[in-house]
Amino acid sequence: MFNKLQYISQGSTVAAQLNNIHLALDNGCHWIQMRFKSKQDSDTFALAEAVKILCQEYLAHLIINDNVALAKHIAADGVHLGLTDMPIDQARNIFGATKIIGATANSFEDIQKHIQNGCDYIGLGPYQFTTTKENLSPVLGLEGYRSILTKMHQNGLSTPVYAIGGITLNDVQPLMQTGVYGIAVSGLITHCSHPKKTIKQLKNNLYGNLVV
Ligand SMILES: Cc1ncc(COP(=O)(O)OP(=O)(O)O)c(N)n1
Ligand SMILES: Cc1nc(C(=O)O)sc1CCOP(=O)(O)O
Ligand SMILES: [Mg+2]
Protein backbone atom coordinates (compact mmCIF):
# COMPACT_ATOMS: atom_id res chain seq x y z
CA MET A 1 0.00 0.00 0.00
CA PHE A 2 1.45 3.39 -0.98
CA ASN A 3 1.85 6.19 1.57
CA LYS A 4 -1.05 8.64 1.36
CA LEU A 5 1.25 11.63 1.93
CA GLN A 6 3.92 12.55 -0.64
CA TYR A 7 6.41 15.32 0.04
CA ILE A 8 7.54 17.07 -3.15
CA SER A 9 10.90 18.67 -2.45
CA GLN A 10 11.80 22.22 -3.31
CA GLY A 11 14.86 24.45 -3.11
CA SER A 12 17.08 26.19 -5.63
CA THR A 13 20.34 24.76 -4.32
CA VAL A 14 21.58 21.32 -3.27
CA ALA A 15 21.91 22.55 0.31
CA ALA A 16 18.37 23.94 0.40
CA GLN A 17 16.96 20.75 -1.13
CA LEU A 18 18.80 18.56 1.37
CA ASN A 19 17.67 20.72 4.28
CA ASN A 20 14.03 20.62 3.18
CA ILE A 21 14.07 16.88 2.52
CA HIS A 22 15.76 16.18 5.86
CA LEU A 23 13.14 18.33 7.58
CA ALA A 24 10.32 16.37 5.94
CA LEU A 25 11.87 13.00 6.84
CA ASP A 26 12.71 14.02 10.39
CA ASN A 27 9.14 15.14 11.00
CA GLY A 28 7.34 12.08 9.71
CA CYS A 29 7.24 11.96 5.90
CA HIS A 30 7.93 8.51 4.44
CA TRP A 31 7.53 9.26 0.72
CA ILE A 32 9.90 11.80 -0.84
CA GLN A 33 9.82 13.01 -4.41
CA MET A 34 13.10 14.75 -5.26
CA ARG A 35 12.07 17.60 -7.54
CA PHE A 36 15.17 19.66 -8.34
CA LYS A 37 15.07 21.80 -11.47
CA SER A 38 18.80 22.41 -11.57
CA LYS A 39 20.75 23.38 -14.65
CA GLN A 40 23.79 21.43 -13.43
CA ASP A 41 23.48 17.65 -13.91
CA SER A 42 26.37 17.19 -11.47
CA ASP A 43 24.37 18.95 -8.73
CA THR A 44 21.29 16.87 -9.45
CA PHE A 45 23.32 13.65 -9.31
CA ALA A 46 25.06 14.63 -6.08
CA LEU A 47 21.75 15.55 -4.49
CA ALA A 48 20.12 12.30 -5.59
CA GLU A 49 22.92 10.22 -4.07
CA ALA A 50 22.67 12.08 -0.76
CA VAL A 51 18.88 11.87 -0.70
CA LYS A 52 19.00 8.13 -1.44
CA ILE A 53 21.15 7.62 1.68
CA LEU A 54 18.84 9.81 3.77
CA CYS A 55 15.74 7.94 2.61
CA GLN A 56 17.41 4.62 3.43
CA GLU A 57 18.17 5.86 6.94
CA TYR A 58 14.53 6.92 7.42
CA LEU A 59 13.07 3.86 5.62
CA ALA A 60 11.35 6.22 3.21
CA HIS A 61 10.41 5.78 -0.45
CA LEU A 62 12.40 7.88 -2.92
CA ILE A 63 10.84 9.02 -6.19
CA ILE A 64 12.89 11.04 -8.68
CA ASN A 65 11.08 13.70 -10.69
CA ASP A 66 11.46 13.63 -14.51
CA ASN A 67 14.80 11.82 -14.84
CA VAL A 68 14.44 8.08 -15.52
CA ALA A 69 18.15 7.49 -16.12
CA LEU A 70 19.04 9.10 -12.80
CA ALA A 71 16.32 7.16 -10.97
CA LYS A 72 17.69 3.92 -12.40
CA HIS A 73 21.31 4.85 -11.72
CA ILE A 74 20.76 5.45 -8.02
CA ALA A 75 18.21 2.62 -7.72
CA ALA A 76 15.43 4.93 -6.55
CA ASP A 77 12.06 3.38 -5.75
CA GLY A 78 10.45 5.21 -8.62
CA VAL A 79 10.13 8.11 -11.00
CA HIS A 80 7.44 10.71 -11.64
CA LEU A 81 6.73 11.70 -15.26
CA GLY A 82 4.80 14.69 -16.47
CA LEU A 83 2.82 15.29 -19.61
CA THR A 84 5.95 16.45 -21.45
CA ASP A 85 8.39 13.92 -19.96
CA MET A 86 9.37 10.49 -21.25
CA PRO A 87 6.36 8.25 -22.13
CA ILE A 88 5.47 5.81 -19.37
CA ASP A 89 5.87 2.64 -21.43
CA GLN A 90 9.34 3.76 -22.53
CA ALA A 91 10.27 4.50 -18.90
CA ARG A 92 8.95 1.09 -17.85
CA ASN A 93 11.22 -0.63 -20.40
CA ILE A 94 14.22 1.26 -18.96
CA PHE A 95 13.36 1.18 -15.28
CA GLY A 96 11.77 -2.27 -14.91
CA ALA A 97 8.53 -3.88 -13.78
CA THR A 98 9.04 -3.57 -10.02
CA LYS A 99 9.71 0.17 -9.87
CA ILE A 100 7.06 2.79 -9.18
CA ILE A 101 6.13 5.04 -12.10
CA GLY A 102 3.87 7.99 -11.37
CA ALA A 103 2.28 10.22 -13.99
CA THR A 104 0.80 13.70 -14.05
CA ALA A 105 -2.79 14.21 -15.18
CA ASN A 106 -5.11 17.19 -15.60
CA SER A 107 -8.12 15.32 -17.04
CA PHE A 108 -9.89 11.95 -17.07
CA GLU A 109 -8.51 11.36 -20.55
CA ASP A 110 -4.95 11.87 -19.27
CA ILE A 111 -5.65 9.30 -16.55
CA GLN A 112 -7.07 6.75 -19.01
CA LYS A 113 -3.98 7.09 -21.21
CA HIS A 114 -1.53 6.77 -18.30
CA ILE A 115 -3.27 3.70 -16.90
CA GLN A 116 -3.27 2.07 -20.34
CA ASN A 117 0.48 2.78 -20.51
CA GLY A 118 1.11 1.13 -17.15
CA CYS A 119 1.55 3.83 -14.50
CA ASP A 120 1.35 2.91 -10.80
CA TYR A 121 -0.17 6.15 -9.49
CA ILE A 122 -1.52 9.44 -10.81
CA GLY A 123 -0.67 12.98 -9.67
CA LEU A 124 -3.86 14.90 -10.58
CA GLY A 125 -3.61 18.65 -10.45
CA PRO A 126 -3.45 21.45 -9.87
CA TYR A 127 -6.11 21.55 -7.14
CA GLN A 128 -5.65 25.31 -6.93
CA PHE A 129 -3.12 27.95 -7.96
CA THR A 130 0.40 27.49 -6.60
CA THR A 131 3.69 29.27 -7.15
CA THR A 132 5.70 26.08 -6.57
CA LYS A 133 5.30 24.98 -10.17
CA GLU A 134 5.42 27.20 -13.27
CA ASN A 135 3.25 26.65 -16.35
CA LEU A 136 0.35 25.13 -14.41
CA SER A 137 -2.39 23.23 -16.22
CA PRO A 138 -5.95 24.56 -15.69
CA VAL A 139 -6.94 24.59 -12.02
CA LEU A 140 -9.29 21.69 -11.20
CA GLY A 141 -10.82 22.72 -7.88
CA LEU A 142 -12.88 20.36 -5.72
CA GLU A 143 -15.56 19.90 -8.40
CA GLY A 144 -12.89 18.91 -10.88
CA TYR A 145 -11.74 16.10 -8.61
CA ARG A 146 -15.31 14.99 -7.92
CA SER A 147 -16.05 14.79 -11.65
CA ILE A 148 -12.85 12.96 -12.59
CA LEU A 149 -12.93 10.50 -9.67
CA THR A 150 -16.58 9.73 -10.43
CA LYS A 151 -15.68 8.94 -14.06
CA MET A 152 -12.86 6.68 -12.84
CA HIS A 153 -15.28 4.80 -10.59
CA GLN A 154 -17.83 4.48 -13.37
CA ASN A 155 -15.11 3.01 -15.62
CA GLY A 156 -13.72 0.65 -12.99
CA LEU A 157 -10.37 2.44 -12.76
CA SER A 158 -8.79 2.09 -9.29
CA THR A 159 -5.23 3.35 -9.79
CA PRO A 160 -4.29 5.53 -6.80
CA VAL A 161 -4.82 9.24 -7.48
CA TYR A 162 -2.95 11.90 -5.51
CA ALA A 163 -4.25 15.45 -5.43
CA ILE A 164 -1.55 18.08 -5.87
CA GLY A 165 -1.27 21.83 -6.16
CA GLY A 166 -1.66 24.48 -3.47
CA ILE A 167 -3.03 22.02 -0.89
CA THR A 168 -3.39 23.24 2.70
CA LEU A 169 -4.44 21.34 5.84
CA ASN A 170 -8.09 22.36 5.53
CA ASP A 171 -8.24 21.00 1.96
CA VAL A 172 -7.37 17.43 2.90
CA GLN A 173 -10.69 16.10 4.17
CA PRO A 174 -12.77 17.62 1.32
CA LEU A 175 -10.28 16.22 -1.17
CA MET A 176 -10.32 12.76 0.42
CA GLN A 177 -14.13 12.82 0.21
CA THR A 178 -13.86 13.13 -3.60
CA GLY A 179 -12.22 9.69 -3.65
CA VAL A 180 -8.55 10.57 -4.12
CA TYR A 181 -6.11 8.13 -2.55
CA GLY A 182 -3.83 10.74 -1.02
CA ILE A 183 -2.12 14.08 -1.46
CA ALA A 184 1.22 15.42 -2.65
CA VAL A 185 2.42 18.63 -1.04
CA SER A 186 5.48 20.85 -1.16
CA GLY A 187 5.07 24.34 0.26
CA LEU A 188 2.76 23.32 3.10
CA ILE A 189 5.49 21.20 4.69
CA THR A 190 8.51 23.23 3.52
CA HIS A 191 7.32 26.55 4.94
CA CYS A 192 5.30 25.55 7.99
CA SER A 193 6.51 26.61 11.46
CA HIS A 194 5.57 23.35 13.24
CA PRO A 195 6.32 20.57 10.72
CA LYS A 196 5.92 17.63 13.13
CA LYS A 197 2.46 18.86 14.22
CA THR A 198 1.43 19.68 10.63
CA ILE A 199 2.51 16.30 9.28
CA LYS A 200 0.71 14.50 12.11
CA GLN A 201 -2.46 16.50 11.36
CA LEU A 202 -2.13 15.69 7.67
CA LYS A 203 -1.77 11.99 8.46
CA ASN A 204 -4.77 12.06 10.80
CA ASN A 205 -6.88 13.56 8.00
CA LEU A 206 -5.50 11.10 5.46
CA TYR A 207 -5.77 7.93 7.55
CA GLY A 208 -8.88 8.86 9.48
CA ASN A 209 -7.31 9.48 12.90
CA LEU A 210 -5.74 6.00 12.96
CA VAL A 211 -2.29 7.61 13.40
CA VAL A 212 -0.97 7.23 16.96
C1 LIG B 1 2.77 13.62 -7.47
C2 LIG B 1 3.09 14.59 -8.56
N1 LIG B 1 2.09 15.02 -9.39
C3 LIG B 1 2.39 15.91 -10.38
C4 LIG B 1 3.67 16.37 -10.55
C5 LIG B 1 4.01 17.32 -11.66
O1 LIG B 1 4.94 16.70 -12.51
P1 LIG B 1 5.25 17.39 -13.93
O2 LIG B 1 3.99 17.62 -14.65
O3 LIG B 1 6.30 16.59 -14.60
O4 LIG B 1 5.85 18.80 -13.55
P2 LIG B 1 7.24 19.05 -12.80
O5 LIG B 1 7.04 18.54 -11.39
O6 LIG B 1 8.28 18.24 -13.52
O7 LIG B 1 7.44 20.53 -12.88
C6 LIG B 1 4.68 15.88 -9.71
N2 LIG B 1 5.97 16.30 -9.87
N3 LIG B 1 4.38 15.01 -8.71
C1 LIG C 1 4.85 19.78 -8.59
C2 LIG C 1 3.46 20.22 -8.88
N1 LIG C 1 2.73 19.70 -9.89
C3 LIG C 1 1.52 20.23 -9.98
C4 LIG C 1 0.54 19.87 -11.03
O1 LIG C 1 -0.57 20.46 -11.05
O2 LIG C 1 0.89 18.98 -11.85
S1 LIG C 1 1.24 21.43 -8.80
C5 LIG C 1 2.80 21.19 -8.16
C6 LIG C 1 3.32 22.00 -6.99
C7 LIG C 1 2.94 21.38 -5.68
O3 LIG C 1 3.52 22.17 -4.64
P1 LIG C 1 2.63 22.96 -3.55
O4 LIG C 1 2.08 21.89 -2.61
O5 LIG C 1 3.63 23.84 -2.85
O6 LIG C 1 1.58 23.70 -4.27
MG1 LIG D 1 8.21 16.73 -14.91
UniProtKB/TrEMBL annotation:
Binding residues for 4-amino-2-methyl-5-(diphosphooxymethyl)pyrimidine: Q33, M34, R35, F36, K37, N65, T104, K133
Essential cofactor(s): Mg(2+)
GO molecular function terms attached to this record: magnesium ion binding; thiamine-phosphate diphosphorylase activity
Entry keywords, A to Z: Magnesium, Metal-binding, Thiamine biosynthesis, Transferase
Binding site for 2-[(2R,5Z)-2-carboxy-4-methylthiazol-5(2H)-ylidene]ethyl phosphate: T130, T131, T132, G166
Family: Belongs to the thiamine-phosphate synthase family.
General function of this protein: Condenses 4-methyl-5-(beta-hydroxyethyl)thiazole monophosphate (THZ-P) and 2-methyl-4-amino-5-hydroxymethyl pyrimidine pyrophosphate (HMP-PP) to form thiamine monophosphate (TMP).
The protein's name in its UniProt record: Thiamine-phosphate synthase
Taxonomy of the source species: Bacteria, Pseudomonadati, Bacteroidota, Flavobacteriia, Flavobacteriales
